Amino acid sequence: MSRPTKANIVIDMEGVDKDDEMDEMGKDATEAKTSRKKRSVVWKEFEIITNSGDMKARCNHCKHNLAYKKGGATTHLTRHLKLCTPRKATLVGKDKGPKQSLLSFDVTEGDEMLSIFKYDKGKVREELVKMFVVHEYPFRMVEHEFFTRFCRSLNPKYEPIKRQTLKLDCMKMYISEKESLKLALAGINKISLTSDLWTSNQSIGYMCLTGHFMDSEWKLQKRILNFCPLEPPHTGLAIADSITVRVLKENFEAKEKLHFCGKIFHVRCCAHILNLMVQDGLTEIRDVIENIRESVKYLKLSPSRLYKFNEIVKSLKLSTSKRLILDVPTRWNSTYAMLECALENKSVFSRYKERDYNYKWLPSDEDWKRAAEVSKFLEVINDVTKVFSGRKYPTSNLFLRQIWKVRKMLNDMSTDNRDFVKRMTLKMKEKFDKYWGECNLVMAIGAVLNPRYKMKLILYTFPKIYPADDFQRHIDDVRESLEFLYKEYLSVASQINSSMSSATYDSNPSQAKKQKTNDFDEWVITNSDIIPRNKSEIDMYLDEGVYKPGNEEYEDFDALNWWKANSLKFRHLSKMARDILSIPITTVASESAFSAGGRVLDQYRSSLKPETVQALICMGDWLRQDFGVELASNVENEFMQEG
Q1: Distance CA 134, CA 627 (A)
Q2: Handedness of CA 330, 332, 337, 340 (dihedral sign)
Q3: Residues in CB range of 477: below 8 A, 6 or more apart
Q4: What are 247-290's pLDDT values in tens digits?
């Protein structure tokens, strides 16, 4: 049957009775009038039904029928919604309508306390910022589906946020935390700064400025104060001319607050000096190191080659558990690790050569001997560097003894008959004399303020470190500098005491009279020759002899704890020791920030702005210090520890 066209419809309409047509039009008009849109919001939760011929309003939640009249009031419907129990249940997890209180158990000092739980959206977002900043998670993770599912499984009320919102929250918290840090540092008397440079994968140079200080509990503290972009050139001279040295020194000089006449204002990083010294020495066996490096690289580039190598290790039943390590040429400590591992497997390399004719870098027997000699030397330097790189204990008081170990080793190597050892030793001695030819006052004073050493270590090591006609001058300089520095602290203390005394007498004039009439004070004055007046705290400290800790305490001896325990006995000298021992001798703390910078600015987040990078690095350090959280140096180390 064909489908009717428009013409057919017109013809059919003409056949309709006129009265029927008028009835239909009236009916349509009536329905249009009765279906007028309802304005009250209650109708979103009610529907109109017909029950036994009567029209009723049925609740969508509890299915209860209520009276309904066209155009009538809806007050009774609103009242019902407020009391409707099923409706309350559906509103759980939403921020509108009445809620039922949730009970939670808070454990405080071992006691369980019943309290009412209240969902705080602001607190959740604050903790979310801390989690992302402290653990260096990418912002995009907050939008991940299963991250949202996980948060909602903990609390159904969790509301997802966008990564842009998280970033804004981070910047707000950074400003707040920075103000808090300023207030905390306002009460610090002395602070030491370390700085270093780093180039990101954005080809932007960053300078990290780290502050080191002692808190009220005599604990070493550090905080990253700034992590900002620095214009080229990125050289040591650029750092020296930057704000960390030039501007600060000029400001202190203008205010006449330059400590110790600026003699210990700028100290070179000892780890960097050791690195320069070792790198110069390793150039004499460059060919040996290159052969071992290429051998390791050749094996590690192919799984089948590495499998053959490991099979030979098993067949020889070698006890070594170390895997082959490929070094980073600019890091001597990684070269030491590579040599140490290769030496343990040197018999395997020759066996592998018999199975692989394409292998061309097999070291000779003479090369292995040279590598073994260099490895012994690098082991000493590696141990010294580990001591220098400590961040949780003072290092300035340990510096001299470690430097003496290096000097002693160089002196012993200089008597070796082998030419390559003599050439290597000569190059390293030149670097040593360049940077440590003159006495490092921080090194020397720090050693004296170690109660295990005092002046004894100076008298023992200086004749071995410096020339015979010059060591006495350095010893005298140390003693004079020690006295000069102590007098500075004594002068500051006397000024404070005099101002406090004058304030006391001004507020209470009779106090001076009471002091004069005190019989005990008069007796002390007349018998003051019992204790020599010219006996200073520093003389008393040095005359007592060195402190000898027990065998168990010797390795873990903490000079700061000793000074804290004797702070009442040496009131002024302990303050001086507190400040000197808080001076770091390496920039390890600043360099550790670059590891964090590499994680924050990885290949997936290389578009972060410098101000965002600054906020993430600085605030991450502050929060980790506050909460005692430590991160692995890189993600690979974390997985290795878990495996």
Answers
A1: 9
A2: positive
A3: 439, 441
A4: 777 777 777 667 667 777 778 888 888 888 999 999 988 999 99
What is the pTM (predicted TM-score) of this model?
0.71
- What are the tokens at 62? 């509890």
Tell me the one-letter amino acid at 576. M
Inter-residue contact 622 to 593 (CB < 8 Å)? no
- The tokens for 431 are 């670097």
pLDDT digits (tens, 9 = 90+) for 211-236: 999 998 999 999 999 988 877 766 65
First-last CA distance in the chain: 78
**Residue 92: how many other CB atoms lie within 10 Å:** 12
pLDDT at 522 over 70: no
Q: Which residue, among 430, 336, 423, has the nearest Cα to 386 in the 3D structure? A: 336
Cβ atoms 133, 170 nearer than 8 A: yes
Q: Whose structure tokens read 């969902």? A: 119
Helix (H, G, I), strand (E, B) or coil at 591: helix
281-332 pLDDT, tens digit each = 999 889 999 999 999 999 999 999 999 999 999 898 887 667 899 998 888 8
At 189 the pLDDT is 84
The dihedral formed by the CA atoms of 523, 525, 528 and 534, expressed in degrees to the nearest 10 = 170
Task: With beta carbons less than 8 A apart as the criterion, state whether 449 and 558 touch.
Answer: no
For 28-51, letters b (16+ CB in 10 Å) and e give: eeeeeeeeeeeeeebeebbeeeee
Find tokens 């500051």 and name the residue.
492
Distance CA 538, CA 55 (A): 102
HEC-encoded secondary structure of 131-146: HHHHCCCCHHHHHCHH
Helices (H) and strands (E) in the chain, counts: 29, 8
Q: Which residues have C-beta within 8 Å of that of residue 411, sequence separation ≥ 6?
A: 464
Q: Go through the chain and tell me how many residues it has.
A: 643
In angstroms, the CA 206 to CA 195 distance is 10
User: Six-digit token pair at 585?
Assistant: 């001798």
Q: Are 77 and 65 in contact (CB under 8 A)?
A: no
For the record, the structure tokens of 359 come out as 């292998």
Helix/strand/coil (H, E, C) string of 438-491? CCCHHHHHHHHCCCCCHHHHHHHHHHHHCCCCCHHHHHHHHHHHHHHHHHHHHH
Write a three-state SS string for 240-267: HCCHHHHHHHHHHHHCCCCHHHHCCCCC
- List 193's β-bridge partners, or say none: 211
